[in-house]
Amino acid sequence: MRSDSVARRIWLRDFFGYLWWFYNPFGKLSVEGIYTLVHTNYLGEKGHYLNLGYWKDAATVDEACEAMAGLLAEKAELQASDHVVDVGFGFADQDLYWMRTRSPARIVGLNITRSQVELARQRVAGEGLSDRIELLAGSATSMPLPSAAFDKVLGLESAFHFDTREDFFAEALRVLRPGGRLALADVARLPRRGAWHRRFLHWYSWNFYRWKYCVPPENDDDRDSYARKLEAAGFVDVKVESIREHVFAPLHHALAANPTLLRRMHFLARLPYNLILKLDGERVYFAYDYLIATAVKPA
Ligand SMILES: C[S@@+](CC[C@H](N)C(=O)[O-])C[C@H]1O[C@@H](n2cnc3c(N)ncnc32)[C@H](O)[C@@H]1O
Questions:
Q1: Closest CA to 45 of 260, 276, 193, 275
Q2: Going by C-beta distance under 8 Å and a sequence separation of 6 or more, which residues neighbour residue 244?
Q3: pLDDT for 90
Q4: Phi-psi label, residue 156: left if phi above 0, alpha if psi -120 to 50, beta otherwise
């Protein structure tokens, strides 16, 4: 009886949540509101990754999401002795993967979405890794962590949400040891170029996405301003590269070729996605960039 009423409450929350978020052009949710609503109803069949995937050599959503976690670990030069901070860990798929493949000494995760923290902790405990992966509820812009205590800070497709990215860069610099490394996979925008109608469409598309996915206006960065912000925060050896051709269009093509991949999503979320999949992927994502950024705290 009790579980029936809980299920009914969740059904109603999801129904009105998606109605508000996807069908009302002005409907906006907080970051926690978005991820509580999406919960585990995303694309993966095996895990609960929420990133868009690195599709260079991947054939499935699960492979692509894991490949993005692998690419970030490679860019971070993640190794066995490392003490790591992972900001925006989702359901901790990447932390479990990094432990399996690179076995860092310790990972401390920070995540603002409490329902994700709860489930992620259960998954980590289920793998017997609670002594090496500590998952905290909190914001990457105000880390409840000591200064100069970590070798690496990693953020897998989360920093675009942070309010603001610059505050996070300052916190990352603080918690890193001298010589420590920051590595981020992040969504940004392409520079606005071309005829006025093209620039207008770019502006509209980017700002619609910003509004819907709760990206603060201060995070309106392209690749160059991203690098400048990292340098201004005090990082050196800053590198920011675009991998967009291995992210947006291949994901779009994979979903268009196999729309049944959308089946795990809420039915109200599937409809707009099915419409978008009828369009050309390059056009849909023409305003967006996908960046891999690395930077070092001066020794
Ligand atoms: C697109 S999901 C990516 C999750 C995960 N990294 C993955 O690849 O599956 C973005 C994540 O960032 C988290 N997040 C957003 N804002 C945050 C903040 N200020 N501090 C910590 N985590 C945050 C969200 O809760 C969510 O887990």
A1: 260
A2: 190, 285, 288, 289, 290
A3: 98
A4: beta
pLDDT in tens, 116-144: 999 999 999 999 999 999 999 999 999 99
Distance 1 CA to ligand 1 centre (A): 34
Residue 188 burial by Cβ neighbours in a 10 Å radius (0-12, 13-18, 19+): buried
What is the SS3 assignment for 207?
A: helix
Q: Give, for 288, the enclosing helix (H) or strand (E).
A: strand 288-296
Q: Which of 111, 153, 164, 212 to mutate to test the pocket of ligand 1 (most atoms within 8 A of CB)?
A: 111
Mean predicted confidence (pLDDT) in 148-165: 98
155 Cα: distance to centroid of ligand 1 (angstroms): 8
Q: Max CA-CA distance within the chain?
A: 61
188, 165 Cβ separation under 8 angstroms: no
Contact by Cβ (8 Å): 96, 120 = no
Reported as a single tens digit per residue, the pLDDT across 222-240 is 999 999 999 999 999 999 9
Q: Is the shortest distance between the CB of 141 and ligand 1 below 6 Å?
A: yes
Residue 156 beta carbon below 6 angstroms from any ligand 1 atom: yes
**Strand-pair partners of 87:** 110, 155
Q: What are the chain's domains?
A: 31-296 (3.40.50.150)
C-alpha distances in Å from residue 66, one per residue of 85, 168, 289:
18, 24, 20
Does ligand 1 have an atom closer than 6 angstroms to the CB of 53?
no
* DSSP 3-state of 194: coil
Q: How far apart are the first and last CA of the chain?
A: 61
Neighbours of 297 (CB within 10 A): 24
Place of tokens 């910003």: 210
Please, what is the average pLDDT of the chain? 95
Tens of pLDDT, residues 70-95: 999 999 999 999 999 999 999 999 99
